[in-house]
Amino acid sequence: MQAANFQVTKNRQNAVLMSALLSTKGPEVQIVIPHKNVDFDALASLAAASMLYGEAKPVLPTSVNPNVRAFLSIHKDIFSFEPLKSLDLEAIDRLIVVDANRWGRLEGTGHLAKRSDLDIHVWDHHPGVGDINASLRRQEALGAATTMLVEALMEKHVLPSPIHATLFLAGIYEDTGHLTFPSTTPRDLRAAAFLLEMHADLKVIQAVLRPTYGPRQKEILFHLLADAKRINFKAYKISIARMDIEGHVPGLAEVVSMYRNIVNVDVAFVIFRDRQKDRCMVIGRSGADSLDVGAVMRLLGGGGHSGAGSAMVKSAEPEGVETWLMEAMQDYRQLPVQISDLMSFPVESVPPDMPMREVEAVLNRLGYSGMVVIDGEKLVGVISRRDLNKLTNDGQWRSPVKAFMSTNVITVTPLHSVAEAMRLLVKHDIGRLPVIENGRVIGIISRSDAMIYYYDLIPE
Ligand SMILES: [Mn+2]
């Protein structure tokens, strides 16, 4: 299959920029450089940009993620990257920055940043304009920077080899969480589809994108689990753990993610103390629609996004950091979706003595699949269409609803988190969840309310 079969949507401005870029012959010496701590998106962008720009030399920073290092050690013969040290910086005419938009994210470019005669191109997918003064800036909200460069290659009808396609797809997969992160766009999927057609090898990708989880990470995870505590904080279940580590341990964030999943909390924080360096590293992970970990970490001088964040605290004891963390969470006011935002009310109910025939009529009239049964003000049961379907004779249809309703009713209170309510609906496979306050049913959460929640249909 040909690359040209792919429809790539681009706006007119980009098309103009592209044709200007590709028609002019580039300056004599061009280099491409990605951000330091090179991940697969950075490495793939680096390789793709050097293909796109023809003669541009790909420069590999010295700090490289462990997964990328493993990949490079196997593919040494295929990809040749140059260290910046080996180049004459004065002789460089054009700098092409990929997967970054700030000088601070690049390694060893202090001298280049000062040169006013340097032509700079930026290809990036991070938010913010950054501080690099570029003559060509391709900055788009995509799941991966690689996507943009793959599109440019497709446009130029440059077909990647299967090995290049594998690297490019690893870049897209890594930055989009295998095309599942909310930042993923249709363009990332089109680029991924094209790369599969170019025979990207998913087995290789599966092997190279495996999280760093070896004996050392396992030991840390086991240690954390042995002391795991769950506490209730506001509407969330959270866990804060502390541990001493020595030196740099790769993959700690992944270990914290695993820890959160196993301990089964909405939010997990681990405070790793490095005595030698006299500092504590806090790593936080949270589930969907839970506490915004990035915002809490910013209060500690770190950063991140809603699901993941970290902060480095110098010269502090872990106990002190934990107290500070609790205070930050206390101060941080986020208004998550509340049970009361989601529930339907007023609640239609039937009395326990109503015959089943009438209950069916009420359900039909309201178009409901089930209802609560309320005696006076007290919730006594739930009846659903499923129960109606079990009726076989007229005697049963004349019997009161209390003979057929389920009395073991799962309920929530307005103090529960929405995430918890969703868990209950799924866990018990029930269609509705009455919301109880002071012994009275004040609302009900149904499957359709759950859909509204999951698909973010609630106005902010
Ligand atoms: Mn990236």
Written account of the structure:
By secondary structure, the protein is α/β, with parallel strands linked by helices. It folds into three domains: 3-208, inorganic pyrophosphatase (n-terminal core); 215-331, Diaminopimelate Epimerase, Chain A, domain 1; 340-454, CBS-domain, CATH 3.10.580.10. The protein is 37% helix and 19% strand. The chain is built from 18 helices and 16 strands. The protein has helices at 12-23, 40-52, 66-74, 110-114, 145-155, 162-176, 186-197, 202-208, 215-226, 252-263, 293-299, 318-331, 339-342, 356-366, 385-388, 394-398, 418-427, 447-454, and strands spanning 30-34, 57-58, 94-98, 119-124, 136-139, 231-233, 236-245, 267-274, 279-286, 303-305, 308-314, 349-350, 370-375, 378-384, 432-437, 440-446. The strands form four sheets. A six-stranded mixed β-sheet has the order 6-7-8-9-11-10, with helices on both faces. A hairpin with a 2-residue loop joins strand 6 (231-233) and strand 7 (236-245). Helix 2 (40-52) runs parallel beside helix 5 and helix 6 crosses helix 8. It is elongated, with a radius of gyration of 28 Å. The model is unreliable at 1-12 (pLDDT under 50). Residues 41, 99, 125, 144-145, 175 line the site of manganese (II) ion.
